[in-house]
Amino acid sequence: MNSTEGPDFYIPMSNATGLVRSPHEYPQYYLAEPWVFSFLTIYMFFLILVGIPVNLFTLCVTVLHKNLRTPIYYMVVNMTMADLIVIVVSFPFTMHAAMHGYFVRGMVGCNFEGFFTVHGIQISLWSLVVLSVERFMVSCRPGIDIRFRRRFIVKGIGFSWLMAFSCSLPPLFEWSRYIPEGLQCSCGVDYYTLKPDIYNESFINYMFTVHFIIPLTVISLCFGRLLCMVNNDAISKNEQDASCLTVLLILGFFICWLPYASFGWHIFSNQGSAFSPIAMTLTSFFAKSSVLFIPLICICMDKQLRQCMVITLCLGKNPFEGKVGDSKTSDSSSGSAAPA
Ligand SMILES: *C/C=C(C)/C=C\C=C(C)\C=C\C1=C(C)CCCC1(C)C
Ligand SMILES: *[C@@H]1O[C@H](CO)[C@@H](O)[C@H](O)[C@H]1NC(C)=O
Ligand SMILES: *[C@@H]1O[C@H](CO)[C@@H](O)[C@H](O)[C@H]1NC(C)=O
């Protein structure tokens, strides 16, 4: 046996030594040294501390500037909102658990943490799908009506929430389940057991097909077209920049999530084999850093958004003097929206 199973946990360590304890009741310091848990606590604290202001600032600037009312920035609003939900609602649970070395809040906390993490991340993933399709349409018909594109994106936002719910809700209703993973201080879905009574196998297959392979395929089909739009002088500079930003957001997302997704799939398809709990936790906590990459990519790579940020930070005065078309929209009220 490579593992110890309980009714609501699966620990990747044999209980031959008699050390293994339920992660809902006892610290898991036999899985890793206490300093590893301290490190995870500090890391989560860092993500919360940086993630909230950076996402909030990006969200406020994007909402406040009228010249940012183009489809891609609608999606930026949707994705930063999803990030904020994950950071504010689910990260404090993870940090608290890492601080104590086990899931202090029991199954309720685990469900809460798992649900909001999966939900938020799925919103970002499906937003990127909708965005890729929208970019693809623009590349086919550059003159396409902006009102049509806006309606498409608004429907796409609704679609992203719907798809996210269809991935995050089932484990709460006994189609699979949320379960502590790795060092037992964060929760993911159950890759570890087949559990026929909760149809676990079918859920994991469904999740990886519908919520990973299909979005990945759609994005890949559009990706070549997106790359062609970057630096293509046949289309307007703004559309080139939007495609460039989309490409970077897609790369950021998959860099964050591919290690975790492949590890999860590996565990699922090799039921019962030994794996390192620390490696599992590393990929999962690395994936959590994806809440930072959307605003950071926007700030570092998108000139238009960065200029609007500077205007907001300068309390509405435009230091570029006319380089950004619509500076009237950034009156003094937008300055007060910037966090101190
Ligand atoms: C820290 C908590 C984590 C990483 C919780 C769980 C995450 C999942 C069950 C993720 C599933 C997936 C998503 C959201 C998007 C990429 C593919 C995926 C199926 C691995
Ligand atoms: C592991 O073994 C010890 C000693 O036999 C026992 O007290 C403990 O409950 C076991 N752990 C689990 C999770 O079953
Ligand atoms: C334990 O893990 C090893 C290596 O991953 C594997 O070969 C073995 O079959 C596993 N044992 C059980 C009982 O699954």
UniProtKB/TrEMBL annotation:
<keyword id="KW-0844">Vision</keyword>
<dbReference type="InterPro" id="IPR017452">
    <property type="entry name" value="GPCR_Rhodpsn_7TM"/>
</dbReference>
<keyword id="KW-0597">Phosphoprotein</keyword>
<feature type="transmembrane region" description="Helical">
    <location>
        <begin position="72"/>
        <end position="94"/>
    </location>
</feature>
<feature type="glycosylation site" description="N-linked (GlcNAc...) asparagine">
    <location>
        <position position="2"/>
    </location>
</feature>
<keyword id="KW-0157">Chromophore</keyword>
<feature type="site" description="Plays an important role in the conformation switch to the active conformation">
    <location>
        <position position="113"/>
    </location>
</feature>
<feature type="binding site">
    <location>
        <position position="271"/>
    </location>
    <ligand>
        <name>Zn(2+)</name>
    </ligand>
</feature>
<feature type="domain" description="G-protein coupled receptors family 1 profile">
    <location>
        <begin position="54"/>
        <end position="298"/>
    </location>
</feature>
<keyword id="KW-0449">Lipoprotein</keyword>
<dbReference type="InterPro" id="IPR050125">
    <property type="entry name" value="GPCR_opsins"/>
</dbReference>
<dbReference type="InterPro" id="IPR019477">
    <property type="entry name" value="Rhodopsin_N"/>
</dbReference>
<feature type="transmembrane region" description="Helical">
    <location>
        <begin position="244"/>
        <end position="268"/>
    </location>
</feature>
<feature type="glycosylation site" description="N-linked (GlcNAc...) asparagine">
    <location>
        <position position="15"/>
    </location>
</feature>
<dbReference type="InterPro" id="IPR001760">
    <property type="entry name" value="Opsin"/>
</dbReference>
<comment type="similarity">
    <text>Belongs to the G-protein coupled receptor 1 family. Opsin subfamily.</text>
</comment>
<feature type="transmembrane region" description="Helical">
    <location>
        <begin position="35"/>
        <end position="60"/>
    </location>
</feature>
<keyword id="KW-0479">Metal-binding</keyword>
<dbReference type="Pfam" id="PF10413">
    <property type="entry name" value="Rhodopsin_N"/>
</dbReference>
<feature type="disulfide bond">
    <location>
        <begin position="110"/>
        <end position="187"/>
    </location>
</feature>
<keyword id="KW-1133">Transmembrane helix</keyword>
<keyword id="KW-0472">Membrane</keyword>
<dbReference type="GO" id="GO:0007601">
    <property type="term" value="P:visual perception"/>
</dbReference>
<keyword id="KW-0716">Sensory transduction</keyword>
<feature type="transmembrane region" description="Helical">
    <location>
        <begin position="203"/>
        <end position="223"/>
    </location>
</feature>
<feature type="transmembrane region" description="Helical">
    <location>
        <begin position="152"/>
        <end position="173"/>
    </location>
</feature>
<dbReference type="Pfam" id="PF00001">
    <property type="entry name" value="7tm_1"/>
</dbReference>
<protein>
    <recommendedName>
        <fullName>Rhodopsin</fullName>
    </recommendedName>
</protein>
<dbReference type="GO" id="GO:0007602">
    <property type="term" value="P:phototransduction"/>
</dbReference>
<feature type="modified residue" description="N6-(retinylidene)lysine">
    <location>
        <position position="288"/>
    </location>
</feature>
<keyword id="KW-0681">Retinal protein</keyword>
<keyword id="KW-0807">Transducer</keyword>
<dbReference type="GO" id="GO:0009881">
    <property type="term" value="F:photoreceptor activity"/>
</dbReference>
<keyword id="KW-0812">Transmembrane</keyword>
<feature type="transmembrane region" description="Helical">
    <location>
        <begin position="114"/>
        <end position="131"/>
    </location>
</feature>
<dbReference type="InterPro" id="IPR000276">
    <property type="entry name" value="GPCR_Rhodpsn"/>
</dbReference>
<feature type="binding site">
    <location>
        <position position="201"/>
    </location>
    <ligand>
        <name>Zn(2+)</name>
    </ligand>
</feature>
<feature type="lipid moiety-binding region" description="S-palmitoyl cysteine">
    <location>
        <position position="314"/>
    </location>
</feature>
<dbReference type="GO" id="GO:0016020">
    <property type="term" value="C:membrane"/>
</dbReference>
<dbReference type="GO" id="GO:0004930">
    <property type="term" value="F:G protein-coupled receptor activity"/>
</dbReference>
<feature type="transmembrane region" description="Helical">
    <location>
        <begin position="274"/>
        <end position="299"/>
    </location>
</feature>
<keyword id="KW-0600">Photoreceptor protein</keyword>
